[in-house]
Amino acid sequence: MQFKRKTQSMFIHDSRPRHIAIGDFNNDNNLDLVIANSGANNISIRRGYGNRTFSSRITYSTGFESSPYWVAVEDFNNDTLLDIAVANYGAHNIGIFLGHGNGNFSDQLTFSLGSSRPVSLAIGDFNQDKQLDIAVINNGTFDVVILL
């Protein structure tokens, strides 16, 4: 197995990028990127062109002092369009941005986790009800919580 490094000098991120995930957010059959920027309190989307280049960033706020640490991509509301989940460390919540299928997203919906400081998450159907659930690792409470 081999990998070739592709330097992308246009990638100037907001403050403290923490995590990256991929998905085709605008249904053009090219992979796009979503990046959690903890220092800027936002996520940024870069649309892929299919030739190893990406658009300039489009940002979505995750809230004042939210400090997003982790992003995951799935279809949370079963509309066949990709959505984004965000672990907001500073805001002690999980945010969901619902996708519109054209590369744009709704405002963030939030789910409070108390004083948990979430740092990562994983997606799956843990209770087999055909609805996606979110497993969250919390740094503030030293536990794992599953949002069903």
Provide a descriptive summary of the structure in words.
- The protein has 148 residues and is mainly β.
- The protein has one domain: TolB, C-terminal domain (Neuraminidase).
- A four-stranded antiparallel β-sheet has the order 1-2-3-4, with no helix packed on it.
- A hairpin with an 8-residue loop joins β1 and β2.
- The chain is globular, with a radius of gyration of 15 Å.
Quick synopsis:
The protein has strands at residues 17-23, 32-37, 42-46, 58-61, 68-74, 83-88, 93-97, 109-112, 118-124, 133-138, 143-147. It is mostly beta strands. It has one domain (17-147): Neuraminidase.
Distance between the termini: 38 Å
Biggest beta-sheet profile: 4 strands, antiparallel
The radius of gyration is 15 Å
From the spread of the alpha carbons, the general shape counts as globular
Instruction: Count up the domains.
Output: 1
Number of helices: 0
> What's the β-strand tally?
11
**Known CATH architecture:** 6 Propeller
Helix content: under 10%
CATH level 1 name: Mainly Beta
Q: Which parts are unreliable, with pLDDT below 50 for 5 consecutive residues or more?
A: none
SSE pattern, N- to C-terminal:
EEEEEEEEEEE
Q: Please tell me the overall pLDDT.
A: 94
Instruction: Find the CATH superfamily.
Output: TolB, C-terminal domain
If strands are numbered along the chain, what order do they take across the biggest sheet?
A: 1-2-3-4
